[in-house]
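Follow-up to my earlier ticket, as requested here are the two runs.
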Amino acid sequence: MKWKRITIKTITAAEDIIISTLYDIGLEGAQIEDKVPLTAADKEQMFVDILPDGPADDGIAYLSFFVEECEDGALLFQGEETAESVIIQKVQEELEELKQFLDIGEGTVKVSETEDIDWINNWKQYFHQFYIDDLLVIPSWEQVKEEDKDKKILHIDPGTAFGTGMHETTQLCIRQIKKYVTGTTDILDVGCGSGILGIIALMYGAHSAKGTDLDPCAITATHENMEVNGITEGSFEVMIGNLISDRATQDAVGYECYDIVVANILADVLVLLTPVIVNQLKKGGIYITSGIIDDKETTVVEAVKAAGLKVLEITYQGEWVSVTAQKE
């Protein structure tokens, strides 16, 4: 299937109005490219893996709309075959009208043709098998090499929920889990994403795992990854809920029943989570945190100590930090 990509160069302040306007004429599902930093609200909803601060916002935005191209070269627009020139003219007319009362920047329109694309699988070329110490992480479309068949292997595909093991914060958590997990460990993963940390804990001998997340995609992703790794549903439970503020979620998770709690979340969220999570930890339980950019280390350490936990270890990878503590 081929697509025409219609790209408009505009400014970030005009993104929403342009998307709304073009939606009304039949162009749906815009791809937005800009350098606007994440807001505090955005960050509260995200559970790594995310990158540190990106380039400075220059106010420029590119909005791309994709229209299916028919075999005869026409475009499938609002269920009918339509000439490309007709669609572009409509777009330009709408942009010109917007310019009468709104600054939309250049407002230029560029049309390009994509290759035949499998939109679901196109990204697979960027994700390949790799090692985290003794653990081989491999996607479903790659084969395990003969020399690796006796290794411990995690099968996982990138998807709509975070967590493939590639990010430094995830690897920091994995190493700490391996260090403290035993055959009697019950582990809670706050912000579980793809379920990778709970699955790995079970692979290394944990008794049971539970995960919470704000994104409903986490349940589907975790169940899919459990299945391909031979993890039974009885050993890993996932639920949607905000453990920080929702008492019902706290009750459902349970109190003083986890040997390990792991939270691979942003530092500002860890500050809010830590005084709550001490209630879920058993006495002597281990609290593993990451998602902490290096200049936030002190903030998290202070929050951990203020919650009455003893800091056991601080580990580093790249510019990321993991703080491991214990409930005395």
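Run two:
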Amino acid sequence: MKIKCDFCDSMIDETETSCPHCGAPLSGVNRTAGTSPQTIEQLRDWYIARNLPPEEVTRFFIGKDIRDPKAFGIYKNSNGDFVVYKNKSDGTRAIRYQGSDEAYAVNELYQRLRSQIEDQKRLNNSRPRSNFATSSFKPGGCLKATLTSKIFIIAIIVIFLAIIAMFFADGIPNGYYKYNDTSYYRQGEDWFYYDGSIGDWKYAAPSSSIYSDINDDNFLDYDSSYYGSNSFEDSLWYDDSSYSSSSSSSSSSSSWFDSDDDNDWDSDWSWDSSDSWDSDWGGSDWDSDW
């Protein structure tokens, strides 16, 4: 399969790590390193985790062969090839990549999606915000605005305190614990234990008996920094934002996010639901090949 060099536009073999014509590194090869999405499923999970608008709004279709105008997408065709495409405003299709390398194909759309998110955020930041001071020109407007702001601040404080109370209600923080000569790690609502026979961590389940025993006793009695030969932070289970039990029970997809290049769930590419997405804005440029 031939791919295009981003610097000199020469078509070269996808197996090359640098362009033989201009010597530039192939960004698609280098960018697939680390913990960026490697599969269509992982890219879809990344999309959902960032709270992005529905695909009909962003016009990014992951795992779908959409033929409508104005669409970016990736899918696996009947021949087993992974296809990355862009449908222009007139309905014609430009193929960005077609081949057997799923990680490369996924990365092409992944980079385009991240770029689009940045463009959309810049668009939202450039839009004029409603002027709070204008309410003072209406009878009682200033008083209403002041009361509204106070109520909003109080509501935020109450919600924050409720979340903190819920998370620390049992008094057991995340961390290492030693129980019956076994090393455990608590992460959110989940427990993991160190299996010395394989030198790695395993999922213990949220209802593990260790929870009740430590909860009924002083958790400091079980507090430990011992973890065998491998730390829990280096395992695939680790997530410094503490994901829920529902995600940790499926390590094949959730563990991939644990040390994401984009600073986990709170990356610069997460979407604020209060913002709007304009797929027809100039950043999309629906008449270009990509």
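The only thing I checked on run two: The first strand starts at residue 2 and ends at 4. Let me know what else you need.
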